[in-house]
Amino acid sequence: MGSSSHSHPLPNPTTPAGADGLAAFLARPGKAVVALDFDGTLAEIVPDPEQARAHPRALPALAALAPRVASVAVITGRPAGVAVRYGGFAGVPGLDHLVVLGHYGAERWDAVSGTVKAPAAHEGVASVRAELPGFLDRIGAWRGTWIEEKGRAVAVHTRRSADPQAAFEALRDPLNELAARHGLIVEPGRMVLELRPPGMDKGVALTEYVREVGAETVLYAGDDLGDLPAYAAVEKLRSDGHPGLLVCSGSEVPELAERADLVLPGPAALADFLATLAAS
């Protein structure tokens, strides 16, 4: 792989903690967990989430990297089975121990078994799903918003509105009130507000998984507000003596980019970075 046309020099983290994390990773990759968000990180953000697919270079990079590290995990707000389908993760040589933690860690798919384990659904999600279309009508929700079914969650997208940011801001408070009424929380993202059960986030999922694997070092890459809890988890692991590297895919979300050790321009650059790590 080192001779591939996509082989690049490793970029330098911009923080001392990130430099330590990368050095620890390179010194003992077999003791490292690589955890990655899906949308915006492994896959480009697209207007229709159902059309999202892993970047063509992401799978080969992960398949080259996975056998060298303790584990690769994809941690996503999507249902685990959907992420597996859109990522093309099933049956890939080299990814035979990949784990996908879906719905922020509430669901889990293991490549070894090929099955998804999931708890019972939260009844508030069904209630909100039934109420949401009428609710959006009643509050005069902006034209162009649309609802995405996510199984254990339901999301309202504003990306196709005439003014996506204004629609997003206008919906925040009403959707927070609706969610609270049904025992749910709102997870904001890039032009999307997702109503989902509380108690699980990417930070909880990542911390539990790092413990389960017994990893010394963790690399986490994400692109959106839902990745902030995972960033906080890596920062906490670092304070407990576990080196870590925080990678941000793209710079659309300043809250994330400002806390990252390494900002890459998007999924293509992230795939190249993973390929370079595999060849290092």
Task: Write a short abstract of this structure.
The protein has helices at residues 16-27, 58-65, 80-87, 123-138, 164-181, 202-213, 228-239, 254-257, 267-279; strands at 32-36, 71-75, 99-102, 107-110, 115-117, 146-149, 154-157, 185-189, 192-196, 217-222, 244-249, 262-264. With 280 residues, it is of the alpha/beta class. Mean pLDDT is 93; it is low at 1-6.
Structural class: alpha/beta
H/E topology pattern: HEHEHEEEHEEHEEHEHEHEH
Give the uncertain stretches in residue-range form. 1-6
Question: Biggest sheet: strands side by side, in what order?
Answer: 5-4-3-2-1-10-11-12
Enumerate how many helices there are, as a single number: 9
Share of residues in helices: 25-40%
Percentage of residues in strands: 15-25%
Largest sheet geometry:
8 strands, mixed
In round numbers, the mean pLDDT is 93
Rounded to an integer, what's the Rg over CA atoms?
19 Å
Query: In angstroms, what separates the terminal alpha carbons?
Result: 10 Å
Question: Tally of extended strands?
Answer: 12
Shape: globular
Structural summary, described in words:
- By secondary structure, this protein is an alpha/beta fold.
- It is built from 9 helices and 12 strands.
- It is globular.
- It starts with 15 loop residues before the first helix and ends with a helix.
Map the helices and strands.
Layout: H1 16-27, E1 32-36, H2 58-65, E2 71-75, H3 80-87, E3 99-102, E4 107-110, E5 115-117, H4 123-138, E6 146-149, E7 154-157, H5 164-181, E8 185-189, E9 192-196, H6 202-213, E10 217-222, H7 228-239, E11 244-249, H8 254-257, E12 262-264, H9 267-279
Parallel strand pairs: 1-2, 1-10, 2-3, 10-11, 11-12
Antiparallel strand pairs: 3-4, 4-5, 6-7, 7-9, 8-9
Helix pairs in contact: 2-9, 6-7
